[in-house]
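Q: My collaborator sent me two sequences in one message, no labels, and asked for predicted structures for both. Can we handle them in order? The first one she listed is below.
A: Yes, handling them in the order given. First sequence, followed by its structure tokens:
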Amino acid sequence: MSQPPENTSFDVAVIIGRWQLPHLGHKTLLDKALATGRKVVVVIGSSYRARNASNPFTWEERKAMLGTMLNDVDAGRVQFVPVRDYFDDERWVKAVRAGVEALTEGSRSIALVGFKKDHSSYYLDNFPQWRGVRVDREHDLDATGLRNVFFGATDAKARMSVLRPFVPTGVLAHLQAWAQLPVFAERAREHVAVREYRERWTAPAYLTADALVRYTCDGKRYLLLVRRGPKAIGAGQWAVPGGFVNDGEPGYTAAVRELAEETGFRPLASSLRAGLRDQHTFEHPGRSPRGRLVSFAYFFDMGGERLPEIRGADDVDEARWVEESELPAYESLLFEDHAAILDRFVGLFPKV
């Protein structure tokens, strides 16, 4: 069994991040955690999500890259906790605590190691039960800028040459190999598409509307989802039907219009109104890499004896009735924050 340094001050040191392209600044945090706690827990945020421009790597891929920063001795002291995005600070904090406590039961002293980079580091203040250990920044690095190089540079040699001074050797080797996979080309195309999107649409915020429809047939509940078309950002991912609100259009009207355009689902207006069970505004600043998109979402429970016929149209490839019990298998395939939308209305995430 690996042994921690004799001068470690805490039973456990925790570090939290998205690690969406691990760099030397992250290695500084990891090294400090190893020097602080006899055991180290690395929390990997934004886990279980579909890939997008802000979260191109799965949590398993990020765990593997972080693991290249460890020698064989230290690797035995480090454990990893994947945590999903809830877009709800209270639930997220509970999930982080539960994940850490499951691995550290009986530990008397826990330290939270981190450095305050900007407003995104506010989460460090949400764990008063853990002793804060702040780290001075040795490297002025930004994972967003490094992702821009990795996915935006067209010359492979130049890409790696620019990254080399800022990324640990093992991570660089991992990225170099990963870039040979088809998924890299997909991510690079979407990275460029999101960049061009943000250059074109520059308002502080835009309004969208989504409509989640449920039918119950033969004792089973079904939800209507759509698969995004090949030209859309998030191509191939599943989503709640929806789209942008037109100028002067109410949110409800936009949601119903998009539902009809994307799926062909056109019940009587009175039936749809009678089926409206809930509505919620999703406005978290990080819900979409495309920019600040605020969505008015509506949940309709239509009862029903049989599933209505549907078809994918407009900018979607397919419309599908998905049995509600199958939703967990779709979590990592859902567009942007649509897993959180489904969780809000029908419950998708495990209870914390």
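Q: And the one she listed second?
A: Here it is, processed independently of the first:
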Amino acid sequence: MYSTRYPPPDRPHVTLTGFKTCEILEGATFFTDLELELPGVIAPLDANNADILVKYIEDTVEQMLLHPELRHDNIQRMTKVTSDLNIDFLKRGVCWNVAQGNLQWWKPYVRFGSNLKDKFSGRVLRTINSEAAFPFLNFDGNLGIPNSLHITSKPSYKLAYVLMVHADSENIAALIDALADPTVFIYIHVDVFAPDSFHQKINKLVKGRPDIAVMPRPLAVTWSHVSLVWVEVRAFFDLLDLIRFDYVINLSGMDYPLKSAKTIYEHLNKKPGSNWIWWSTEDKNMWQLDYRVHNMFHCREHRFEWASRCVFSPEPHGWREFDGFKDLFPRLYKTSQWMILHHSAVSYLRKSEAAKLLLMHSEHASIPDEMFFSTFYAASPFGGRTYRDPKRLMYWDGGSHPYEWTSNDEAVVRAWAYHFLWMRKVDVVGDPKLKEILDDIRAKDVMSSQIVLHYEGGIIPVD
């Protein structure tokens, strides 16, 4: 992975306030060494023209939201984030793109006659205020420790799991039982869109178990949308407040462990402080990132009326350059959303101003969970401690989703399980024989010391 130094040698900057339409920009900092071209102003940003820039951005956003191609009837104008928080998702995206100052279609205000190459391609926005932009992500510890846990001091665990679930409580119960260990803490996110009966089943499942907690004020999740990244980021930060841990691992409700907690920890800690994220180094995959990240995607239609979900599609005039961020992230990486992070890497993510910029840019990207974490950690001090093997046994047969293993696959599973710590996707309740096979593999508890970089026959570490 690439590695760069962040932050770069700082440039002069100023904090802007007074945003009303673009609340996400309140308290953001802007560089002051680029010449601006605003009505009546051709000069660098300073205290005398700061209010003019704020007004220009806000007026531009309001005008652009009236554009015929942005006025379609879509549900993202009032997107559900949590059960009690809705945001104008389209407005956030337009505010963000206009604030860059150097995007041709988004009413640029940087004077293009100047040499922008040495000044990060003309990007003006330096940082954003997480309390204004991400109050639901716990960047600043402002959500606090869930009162229901009554934690007075942080207990210590070797492994922390983040389970992202929305259905099939019986499989989740089997997964929790398989993961359970005195050295393990389990943190569960239940999709807001899941039925109330499912929320109740999960709460009942974890009641009285001090090493398991359910995320309060959970998030609404839509496939291919940044909400998947939000869940992971929020869960990681909550865990920093709740407990002490060495490694955090994210799982779905259709995952299952192949090794004991002891063997999992010992294997990871052979490389102390390590992170494990698969990423592609093949240029043939870059077209996906170009398409997903550079185009501004929007909600176009309902997928499920009851859930107010949407299908993402690119806006014809929604091209967004990433060049202004290349000083922070020299290269985008295609990756999997499944990962293992060390405590130090999660702490770094929480403190990083660059992470907030990448997270904001990801909001109107398609499937950003397959880009965000690898791109971020590639450009961090952790690049040399991040390995291309998330330790999941998966099989990809060319469809939209990974293959669902069954007991009929016993020979293949036993042949490959030696190299992996978990597997997906499985239904161990619907296929009890498969559960017997996996429990037997976990009981034998034999793990290879190799890092698997080359997979065969459809066995790949990504979905």
